[in-house]
Amino acid sequence: MAVGIGARAGDREISHLLTRTAARALVTHEVQRGRPASELKKAVAEQEAVLEHLVLVPDFISGDKPILIDGKPSTRDRAGAARSRHRA
Predict the structure, then answer these.
(1) Rounded to an integer, what distance in angstroms lies between the CA atom of residue 57 and that of residue 27?
(2) Confidence band for 88, pLDDT divided at 50, 70 and 90
(3) Nearest one of 35, 77, 74 to 53, comparing CA atoms
(4) What ranges do the domains of the chain cover?
(5) Between 11-21 and 37-46, two packed helices, what is the crossing angle to 10 degrees?
(6) For 32-55, what is each residue's pLDDT tens digit?
């Protein structure tokens, strides 16, 4: 399931939506509203949202940065599915 979250949503609203939908991953840019996405993840976790994964999508206009899944660069396999290069 995917849930759209508005760019102006605050921590409480984001936490509510993540909890209500039982989302386990947050897909966002590295910086959200002037702060690192890791701080956003921490803030929503403090409000009891449970996130297993943080997926960081770069601003594709600014260069060749990879998509990061839990801080690790992702790649595509032959079938085109995104995979983490470094599994924990």
Answers:
(1) 7
(2) very low
(3) 74
(4) 11-84
(5) 70
(6) 888 999 999 999 999 989 999 999
For position 3, what pLDDT does the model report? 86
Tokens describing residue 30: 């590295």
- Answer for the pair 10, 49: CB distance below 8 angstroms, yes or no: no
**Is the per-residue pLDDT at 79 higher than 50?**
no
Please give the Cα distance from 40 to 85 (Å, whole number): 24
- Take residue 71 and report the two structure tokens written for it: 């801080």
Helices (H), 1-88: 11-21, 37-46
Q: Both tokens of residue 13?
A: 């609203």
Distance CA(72)–CA(18), nearest Å, equals 22
